[in-house]
Protein: Secreted protein
Organism: Labrys okinawensis
Amino acid sequence: MVSRVSYLVALGALLAAPSLAFGDDDHLPKRVGECVMTRISELGSRLQGVSDSGNSVSYENGGYGVSYSTVKELQRSRVGDRVKLCLVSIPEDCPPGDDRGKEYKATNLRTKGTWTLPDASHMCGGA
């Protein structure tokens, strides 16, 4: 029999964990702390044809990440790898219609590697 204390501890742990939508690959997280499962659909360099320009990654749910430096964890990833993608920050005071600069933390479920990248090369209001 499970004790009431064990039940409450387990319930508290579930409630404290970031939300995770399993099997819902058609949207991006909308709130900080929200996570979704998706897959890597494309891996490349930040600038097409320039291998040392940083990394870019696209996800099946429409997400995108970009870095000016090489991300070793992305180098070990493959197209098709399952990823847990969590929204970690949203920029504030952006011009209307400019929603660039959200940051997402990704965890590759095959390699266990993680990376945190913005969804654009420039923050909202930038170039």
About this structure: The domain at 18-118 is CATH 2.40.50 (OB fold (Dihydrolipoamide Acetyltransferase, E2P)).
